[in-house]
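Loading example: each entry is read as two labelled lines plus one structure line.
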Amino acid sequence: MPHKTVIVGGGAGGLGAAGGVKAARPDAEVVVYTEYEDVAYSPCGIPYVHGGEIPDFERLFLATKDAYVEAGIDVHYETRVSAIDTRAKTVTVDGAEPVGYDTLVLATGFDYADPGVPGGDLEGLYYVKNIRAAMEWDKFLDTVKRAVVIEASPLGVEMTTSLAHRGIETHLVDPHPWPLAEMADPDIMAPVEESWRELGVHTHFNTTLKGFIGQGSVSAVDTSDGEIPCDLVVVATHKQPNARLAAAAGITIGTTGGIVVDERMATSAPGVYAVGDCTEIPHGLTGVPLQGLTGSHAYAQGKTGGTNAGGGSRNYRAVYVPWGTPAGKWVIGGASFGETTATALGIPYVLGQAQGISRARYYPGVKPVKVKLLAEPGSLRLIGAQMVGQEGIKERADFLATAVRFGLTLHDLATMENVYSPAIGALNEPIVMAANNGLDELRKAGRS
Amino acid sequence: MPHKTVIVGGGAGGLGAAGGVKAARPDAEVVVYTEYEDVAYSPCGIPYVHGGEIPDFERLFLATKDAYVEAGIDVHYETRVSAIDTRAKTVTVDGAEPVGYDTLVLATGFDYADPGVPGGDLEGLYYVKNIRAAMEWDKFLDTVKRAVVIEASPLGVEMTTSLAHRGIETHLVDPHPWPLAEMADPDIMAPVEESWRELGVHTHFNTTLKGFIGQGSVSAVDTSDGEIPCDLVVVATHKQPNARLAAAAGITIGTTGGIVVDERMATSAPGVYAVGDCTEIPHGLTGVPLQGLTGSHAYAQGKTGGTNAGGGSRNYRAVYVPWGTPAGKWVIGGASFGETTATALGIPYVLGQAQGISRARYYPGVKPVKVKLLAEPGSLRLIGAQMVGQEGIKERADFLATAVRFGLTLHDLATMENVYSPAIGALNEPIVMAANNGLDELRKAGRS
């Protein structure tokens, strides 16, 4: 009998794992169970189809079902795994006979947090996740005049921008004082709020959700700021790890509710790995467990967990979390954490910030780039960064996350060389300007 | 008497130095001599005005002459310094009485290498440098039907693209087998050559310049490939350090012809600094002296030299040379060196390369990004990189130059996290793909 790996979940983590197993052990039997009709599409693209930036859903599919058959990966669609027995090394599939495995990879993803208010069973509440559902919702969007987005989470920010681009009167309701308050600083988000206003978005911050109102279908959202009439609600609450199967099987769950894994993505149960949004991963600097990372993280974790599940050897590391997303007319992003999170965690920092530009000041299309660097007092090692701009945010976020990981200091960044070519880069790189400004401030304050 | 710094040259290096002196010693007397009518404009923008990407020359000016007066920087325009006496600490200006200095900064820039062929005194030979001249040449370009660019240097590449964009029949003559052959690899330049062909450019590689032909004005270029009729020749030969003043004063000149400086940008003469294209700077890995770096390097060297000339303390480091430029419809770039240079220097390397993309594969505007990484065999430390793409090349080049400087390995880059957000970044970062491919190749070859 060949080695058999069972994978529960068909998202980026699960399919990354399937590929990892096959790379490590080409003759392994790999079985994937998914509750959905499809695998191998990009859920991250859904908001952009709704917003009209991407013309259709079809192009979100990455591979045909045949491609998996050909790769020797046996995907079972619309199939639910209801239990795991880690001693017997079996999974129970749709209540039928247990299926045995040599190794198991859990890639069960996330659920949106229950808003926990009355009216949650009304029609017209859209939880963005599954592409087939999204295709149906997209038709419905053509009839929608007014929409409410619940919470300025990463998805909430994307959906707010997309619905506004689509010409729908969009209201954003969030209990925090500014959008993405758990990861982004208010100065980074201020231009985003401004550009939302230009797009006609109504923001309701410091506002608590009290309920969904309607007869059968939602007709209004009740909030601490009053009732907001609407035809649609996008529920973009916090992503919670879906660790139910693991928990029921006695596998160790962490403080965030995510499955605890080691650097091999192995859980507390022998032969059982977990990858993606159902896990928690330590932050590289603080060790604080994080969950709800990106599809890129899920895929990389999948490759690691799958490689190990296939008998190979691969490690995943603590994360430094480069992030970025369009928001209004801006792109925001960063690495590790910003001032708000540092303050909440009690982590002291010094700051270097600059308002730079993306091309030569005279080159058409030049855009502002604001860079804010947080460094450890004394050592001046970079511990976080936040940015708002339009060009080059993703590449700078990747770089700055790597700079945090390798302990680069403000001195190192202040002496960084940069490309100067009018169409693609300014004389002064904004990261270098921010580092120099931080050092200048310290000098003035007599602290360096 | 206040401290007096004299600066010879009004480009990025000279003005960076003027700012550096004033920052270190606000009451210093700072005198700048320039042979030209202007300072504080961006010569790097000139090709893009010729090409029509930038609508006019006026926007290349960075500051008014008044701004320097207000900053306490005394700029003497159209003024030539003809000699230096490093013992008497004086400079001779336009043959008049010697002018004393406490410290001197040489920022005398570069000259284009003399093509060394007959006909060099004909009209219609354009050496791109001075903005006033460029404004005159731009009017002439309206009458030009056919132009020849001599040498596929960085400027030659830019001017070839610009003239083609302007609708002029453009011929590029270069003695090497591919463009930018001294810094870029042929696989990186192949798409550029292809896109030039689409623009109607005629390339003549492996072709030697034999002379300029004409009666008064140039009417053809004579080459080893035959005569090329033309109305204009852009002479974009190698940039040579203009170190004549320094050499005549007995200051040490290096193997490239550039002024030798230490990390404070100090020359061999006490109190005399040199910055920018007139100097040579060691490459961070090899120690090989380099000259002809970018305006960004010149400006940073100026700040360093100026700070030290003003009595402050600042170091400049060996360079890892991030570079990038538009070329045809592509953007090319890299850091440190590529395969061609490594081979020429006898430096062994292993390679990791990948053809990636700049956004999610389904997101409109997605562009290819080819990344090639060179690493030291054994340690797998990054020693160079080359890229061709359209988006994010400058930011990746900055990052990769920093990665070379800090000794990051292919393993480090293969485990780099990256932003995944459909509009701004793909699931797999091309740098990470290239590093992983390199490691896979080594594994297959049994070398890691």
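The mean pLDDT of chain B is 96.
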